[in-house]
Each structure stands twice: as structure tokens, then as C-alpha cells.
Amino acid sequence: MMKVMTIFGTRPEGIKMAPVVKAIEQDTELECVFVNTAQHREMLDQVTALFDIKPDYDLDLMKPGQKVEELIGLMFSKLTAIIQLEKPDLILVHGDTTSTFVGAYAAFMQKIPVGHVEAGLRTDDMYSPFPEEMNRQMVGRIATYHFAATQKNKENLLKEAVKDKHIYVVGNTVIDALLEITSRDFQFNHELKHIFSNGLKTILLTTHRRENYHELVNIYQAINQLINDYDDIQVVFPIHKNPDIRKKVKESLQHSNRVHLIEPLDYETFVHVMKHSYVVITDSGGIQEEAPSLGKPVLVARNTTERQEGVDAGTLKLVGTSARKIYDECSNLLSNQLEYKKMEMIINPFGTGQTATKIVDLIKSIILIDKLGAHFDVKENEIIG
Ligand code: UD1
Ligand code: UDP
Q1: Which residues does a 6 A CB cutoff place in the pocket of ligand 1?
Q2: Which fold has domain 189-344?
Q3: DSSP secondary-structure letter at 356?
Q4: Would the CB of 172 count as within 6 Å of ligand 2?
């Protein structure tokens, strides 16, 4: 029986790793150990409850207003103890967060091979997104197995001299999660039912990027202007729990009965809010991958994106963080139906689902063969010696 440990702890990792945890749990040849760093608390708990995945270890690391530097140290020592105790055959991490990097580095220090899910995303600007781009590059160096969503992600890894035979293009697990969630029966709660029955066009807004902190005022200024100029629109804004973001929202976003400031939504509700929205303005990563499946245009309020596939396909527009540009691009979509329709009709470049099963099949076949290969190498060397 091969023991596979998964390490993650933020909302987007939870959404994208839930299908992988489920697929490992359902496989009779694999043993699953899920370590929740709990880098996020409420926002991750919403996900584990929704997908019904239960951690074997919960590090309970989130503290309000905690600095990344502080989190890294605590996480590293706690993870090391668990890895030493469990001695897994393989550790899976996902994406680009602190949990991803520390999980991979702790695995490396114990000489456990790492599989990186959602490998090969790059902007090649080490400070944007910050610190995610560097987290990805470092994990790319540590990992043995790279589960890339797209061919472009694979090419990024090849440029960094990652071995071709260890890169697998499998699509993004976010599509698995999205398909599973949209197959469930769903009804909005009273508040959201009310919001979506008023006939207004909805702009869905989310912001949380660290490198955007000083630009948030521009994004909110664009929103204020749009609300003032268009009386047939409303904004739904589930605000990230980060207190730095909340402070900026309070300071810069004007009060209006057409701006709905709400708590983070559970993933199922959020997906249905996306479906009911006209356009999304966001600096999120995951939302850029989901929106094409729901036919929603996304204005990406960032200066770089590592999801160029969505831009090339035409579903994402990288609009930067100037108030003028965000206002103009959103106005264009509100008034130019032709432009809107073009962005609505896109096929999702990030895959079609079934990614988690592909990853589990790969773990069982290729990684097992590698393990046997390493065993034979050692034997051969011993004979020669
Ligand atoms: C983290 C990731 C980022 C990812 C984002 C997803 C890093 C460096 N950043 O950023 O890559 O895109 O998660 O949302 O790993 N908080 C709560 N409750 C929660 C979650 C957060 O109160 O459930 C508050 C806490 O005060 C916490 C703060 O938000 O200290 C920031 O959380 P943190 O995980 O450090 O950074 P994010 O901005 O969420
Ligand atoms: N999301 C959610 N509830 C919300 C806002 C977002 O479930 O209120 C989901 C969203 O659908 C996507 C993921 O959270 O799958 C993105 O998380 P986030 O933007 O926090 O992180 P990123 O993807 O930028 O790392």
C-alpha cells in the first residue's frame, strides 16, 4: 500500500485538492493522509465541509493578521514532525501558497518525493504575484512529479530544465470541483434570492492580492464611478477575511444600496453567484479558471497573469489596476453587446474535468515504476561496488 500525504490549507487549495483527496481515498491501493495546515480557518472550513473531506492532522495555524514570515516557521516545524511520524511515500502540494512552499520544503528535507499539482504557472516576474510566483518556482525545483494543467504550463517547466518524462498535462482539478458542485441541487438563501431578483446587472467583485494592496483604492474608485454612472447595475462583493483588505474596503468603497458587501461565500453558493453575474472583476487566480466554464467575462485587475491561456482564448482581459482602465473596460462590456458575446462563448482552456483521477492513475503507475527503478539502481550499484 502506497501512502500519499496531501498538504494544503487555504481556500483555493481546498477547492482544487478536494477532488484529489477523494480520488486517493477511493483507491484501494493508496492510503491517504490529509494534513490541513489551516493557514485559512473559516474560509477553508467552508470547503472541507462542502466536499466532506476530513483532515488526519489539523495544524490550526491561522491567527488573525498573522505575517507570512511567522507562519512559515511554525508550519515548517509542525509539518516536519508529522512527516517524520507518517513517513509517506509521496507528498502532494498544490499551487503557490505558503502551505505549498513550506510543505514541499519540509518534504524535501525528509527526502520524500513531491508531486506538484497545478505545476508550471509562471509570470516570470518574481514579485508578481507576490510571493506566489517565487513559491511556484521553488516548488518547481523541489518537486519530482509535475501535474500541469496545460501544454503552456509544461513548456514553462521545460524551459527550467524539468525532465519531460516527469511532466504530465492533466488539466486543472478546479474543473472537477466545479462540475461536481454544479451537479448538486441548489437554492440561494433569502438574501441572495432578493439580490438576484431585482433585474439589475451584477458585477461580481473579489480582491485579495498582496501586491495589489496599494492599488485597491484604484479598483474601488472604478467601482464607485460605475455605480454612479450606471443605474442598472449592482455590485456583489464577498470580502476576503484578510483584515488589511477589509480596512481598504471601508476606507475607499462608497456606501450604496447597489453595493452588497457580504462575507466570503461557500464555494457552492459562490459558483451560483458567478452564474448569475454579468461580469466578474477580480484579482483571484482560481476565478480566472472557472469563469470560462460558466461563460462569464472576467476583467483581471492585476498587472500580470499566469493564466495567459484564458487571455488568449478571449475570456479574460488583463486590465491592470488603473481606475480609468477598469472603468473603461467594464463600461465597454456593459454597453457593447457584441464585445460581451465574444467573451461569453469561450471553451475552457483549463480542461474538462477527470483531472484528479488522471493524477491518481499516474501516481500508481509511473511513480511506482520510478520507485522500482530506484530500487534496481541501488542493487546494480551495490553489485558493481
Ligand atoms: C493566501 C495565499 C494566496 C492565496 C490566498 C487565497 C500566501 C502567501 N498567500 O493569501 O496565495 O491566493 O490565500 O485566498 O500563502 N483570514 C481569516 N480567516 C480565514 C482566512 C484568512 O481571518 O479563513 C485572515 C487572517 O487574518 C490572516 C489573513 O486573512 O492572517 C491573511 O491570510 P493569509 O493566508 O496569510 O493570506 P491570504 O491573503 O489569504
Ligand atoms: N471563492 C469562494 N467564495 C468566495 C470567493 C471565492 O468559494 O466568496 C472561490 C472561487 O470560486 C475560487 C477560489 O475561491 O475557486 C479562489 O480563491 P481565492 O480568490 O481566495 O484565491 P486564488 O485563487 O487567487 O489563489
Answers
A1: 10-12, 39-43, 62, 64-66, 68, 96-98, 131-132, 208, 241-243
A2: Rossmann fold (3.40.50)
A3: H
A4: no
